[in-house]
Amino acid sequence: MTPQQIAQFQNQLLSMEEVVTSNDNKITISINGQCRIQNINFAENITIAEIKSTLPSVINQGLTQMGQKVQQLLMIHKQIV
Question: pTM (2 decimals)?
């Protein structure tokens, strides 16, 4: 990839976001294209036990979905090169 293509790829990564909500709608997270958690929101009526049992799977789901998006973007860039 050329430096310009790499810069374009990095900009696309920075603009990506994946939002995932738990099945009970008590936890919502957003993950950026660098697979970093940007935001976590908890419902007012959520308990610590619910957070402990649900948050890991919500994070895993978000990271998996973002990882798939990053892979797709990378495949597109490889086809261009």
Answer: 0.83
